[in-house]
Amino acid sequence: MKVHLKIWRQKNQQEKGHFETYTVDEVNEHMSFLELLDVLNERLIKEGKDPVAFSHDCREGICGSCGMVINGRPHGPDSLIATCQLHMRQFRDGDTIVVEPFRAKAFPVLKDLVVDRSALDRILQAGGYITVNTGSAPEANSIPIPKKIAEEAFSAATCIGCGACVAACKNSSAMLFVAAKVSHLALLPQGQAERTERVKKMVKAMDKEGFGACSNTGACEAECPKGISLRHIARMNREYLRATFIAE
Amino acid sequence: MKLDAKIPEGPIQNKWKKHKANLKLVNPANKRKYEIIVVGTGLAGASAAASLGELGYRVKVFTYHDSPRRAHSIAAQGGINAAKNYHNDNDSVGRLFYDTIKGGDYRAREANVYRLAELSVQIIDQAVAQGVPFAREYGGLLDNRSFGGAQVARTFYAAGQTGQQLLLGAYSALNRQVAEKTVSVFTRREMLDLVVVDGRARGIIVRNLVTGEFERHSAHAVVLATGGYGNVYYLSTNAKHSNVTAIWRAYKRGAFFANPCFTQIHPTCIPQSGSYQSKLTLMSESLRNDGRVWVPKSREVAEKIRRGELTANDVSESERDYFLERRYPAFGNLVPRDVASRAAKERCDAGYGIVPTGLGVFLDFRDAIERLGKEVIRERYGNLFQMYEKITGENPYETPMKIYPAVHYTMGGLWVDYNLMSTIPGLYVIGEANFSDHGANRLGASALMQGLADGYFILPVTIGDYLATLPFDKISTDLAEFKDAEQKCIQNTERLISIQGNKTVDELHRELGKIVWDYIGMSRNREGLILAREKIRNLREEFYRNLRIPGGRHEINEQLERAGRVQDFLELAELMALDALHREESCGGHFREEYQTEDGEAKRNDELFSYVAAYEFRGEEEPTLHKEMLHFEYVKPTQRSYK
Amino acid sequence: MSWFSEFARSSLGKKFFMAVSGLFLISFLIVHLAGNLLLFQGPAEFNEYSRFMSNSPLIRFMEILLAIGFLAHIVYAYILAYKNRQSRPHRYAVKNNSPASFASRTMPFTGSFVLIYLIVHINSFTVKHRFLERENTDFYRTVVEAFQYGWGGFYWLFYVIAMAILAIHLNHGFQSAFQTLGFHHNKYTPLIKKLGSLIALAIPAGFASIPIYFYFFAPKI
Hints:
The structure holds three protein chains of three kinds.
Chain A: E1 3-9, E2 18-24, H1 33-46, E3 69-70, E4 73-74, E5 96-100, E6 109-111, E7 114-115, H2 118-125, H3 147-157, H4 164-168, H5 175-187, H6 195-208, H7 219-223, H8 231-246
Parallel strand pairs in A: 1-5
Antiparallel strand pairs in A: 1-2, 3-4, 3-5, 6-7
Chain B: H1 15-22, H2 28-31, E1 35-39, H3 43-55, E2 58-62, E3 80-81, H4 93-103, H5 110-130, E4 155-156, H6 162-179, E5 183-186, E6 189-197, E7 200-208, E8 214-218, E9 221-224, H7 245-251, E10 257-258, E11 263-269, E12 292-296, H8 299-306, E13 320-321, H9 323-327, H10 337-352, E14 361-364, H11 366-372, H12 374-392, E15 401-410, E16 413-414, E17 427-429, H13 447-467, H14 480-499, H15 505-519, H16 526-546, H17 558-582, H18 606-609, E18 611-616, E19 624-629
Parallel strand pairs in B: 1-2, 1-9, 2-5, 9-17
Antiparallel strand pairs in B: 3-4, 6-7, 7-8, 10-16, 10-18, 11-15, 12-13, 12-14, 14-15, 18-19
Chain C: H1 2-9, H2 11-36, H3 43-55, H4 57-86, H5 102-105, H6 107-132, H7 139-153, H8 155-180, H9 189-217
Helix pairs in contact in C: 1-2, 2-4, 2-8, 2-9, 6-8, 7-9, 8-9
């Protein structure tokens, strides 16, 4: 099959950027979307042009590096996947596919489809951890954690930090990302000691980075490659209220 | 130079304890006067940097990713081993030690492996305390599953994302140290050279991948935690950016490279679908707990499946050859990776493959689904099944998975002593980057264990012994050694850009990958290895003549980054061939066709090859081989049998 | 009180005030609707009710609360909407057509329309009733006249459209408020969503039934 790619090109953070259209013939339906970009890039290099820069690494949907908005949807027209797991069988012959970088004030574009997501790291550095020095941990089975609680914590911990939630949200809100970490640690007995301070610090860091507020639209949940649920956002809201009004 | 592994005296159970007691310490107030560079933020790097920060050292961490959390440890699916014996199935430190030595086909150091087994239990404690959400039983206690090469269930897991969860644990510990300002993280920096001053590792040269600027960083010690070199094969389960550059350039500065030919082929990967293929996807070994591996008994049936005239479900029970269960009744589908991979290759080479290329076998869950129900299977492997379906478009609940072996891990790496220090004083190597504790074959769920044991518990202790001998003085990056190293990096970069030939980096890399896979892959022979060396040299020559890199060096330029990595792979590949050629025996992942038993199993030669082959770089000359003899006092080497 | 100002300045705090004021306004709507339905009872009952409304000190007090509620809801809505817009300076070329509900994406617009309606409504009735025509004892007549003849016969239609838009606003607003307040439960959340939809339908339908009845079915006055 054959597709037309309308891709955002931007030389660096300072330059304005524009769309350019490329046509790729001989697309195989078993190809991943990133492999399609590889094929395009090989051609661009041969033609003496600058290949399209995009983030990628593991190409199996777990490292969280890749991410672009394809036809208006972060990670493209399939659910529960990262861009690297999007395959061309999702498209039809002759389709025009519009590819844009993740857009948010907190995610400046560095080049083409590559954005800077270090804001997410800074939020986690503000408090997304349990303070435990190496070697000071008690025996692992000394604190039982009910299977359901462990699974709920795991469902939040599956976040790969790709930023699709921010890209999908009309407000560029990072609530799902932050909530995933807050919820994961708040659920576990090990996370209780720092529960109050953690949520306050992380929310403060989140607001400082310039992300928007949550409108509970659910777009983040719909686009999350790991299907992280909105109920984690509710849990973070609860944690924040508790930290503000109840905790001493 | 004689290799001294510095293995402590005494009975194996006491070696580590005794050694720790004898190590020199740095007083807490002085720790902040020492700077340590850690390159790489995977399990080993992140855990080491966090632990060093906790101790009070000033740590600089480097990663070429945009965030430490992206390191490839994240992709480990199945689990992490620990001798907790929670299942009362008679597991112990001794048994994990034994399994690992045996699994590695008697090519690992006993003392290191014993220490690894001992520390395994602490890793689980540490991870749980950090909030790693391991799978649990209904009573709230930790759950385990079994993995290849073991007859006990000692593998801790978090669905199919164990690596990710453990890495996020280490990353969160790292983040805490960033908040405490003991650790600074430098993202999007690629290490391109090691700086050695007066015979000691004192710094690194990195390229800022956004601005293209080169930077010099100095420290009192350098720790490399940069992972393995599986991408020398082009197609592997490694992430696209995984590379050998950091350790290779350290090798060229004097660190010995050990056992380069020991590479691991993982049996359960999704077969290649076309020439555009950019990487291979692993399906966790844990699937072999419930999945049964088979091909049709008859070539005709296989041929019909290949042509799409028949499907797996059309093949009746009596027409199926569960070849792992047939050949290895004791371990069945849970034989170690090297054994399973070769068995699959043997069937496919004999014409029983079931995908159009002929290179694929079935991994079938039909019986497990019948026995346990779909829900239980979904709970155990749901995300893996989903991943498989996303990639192939086929539903593994209804039709068996198709799998084929692929390169997955490299046991070889920089040689280190018991303290994890390389042959360059002050240069430490941890995790997959060192030649490691896995001998000639790594058991499943042991990579995470080793990376974390190195990073959390071994390096932070042993490095103090070295630092205590050093003065506090900060070393200036204006020294000639730093300037020269940086200049060399700039020249090399400009040289690569100036070639302006006709082939892209990927084209050359693919060609290299094919050579390495064909001749230094799952099975090797003398003729092929000699031919491979020649082909690699020719390709290297072409690389410097015909490479084409677009753009310049003062910008984000992925092609330029990759060119530097392929440049090193082209040199490494030759060393792999050399090593594979010299090792005239079969052991673990290294299978020399000339050395096999009558029924096609690997045949070791303990008399001649019971050693670690460590290579010293000699410039244009052939590298010098140094041997570290292996002594087995506790596990007597025998013909490995999983029958 | 620094802890409180930190809370009030945070994005979560602002959302909290939105949610609390929103739920308060919904409770007001229910009470207001109950009173308005007296229009169907007839002039005597309705006029008695409106006399009580303009004279009771309790209602005076509630009115102040209500004004604060409205003000908080509106001011925070605009602050949040402004900040949210700022957080994405460069819009997408292709509109995100992901499955987020229409109602949730259009809250600022439906909210703004409801605000316009509110101004019109207050101007038409509250201001008249409370300040301009205090001696008017037949407020029933004022209301019915407005719906039957106001704005050249289209005043009723504006009301019905406004109520339709309010329905959209409430449909997301009610359940969203619970989410913001941290209430999410596998057992009860589906119920809340249903209740939200019911409220979103019933309240505006109740209000809209009044202009529709008086325009189409009631005898002209």
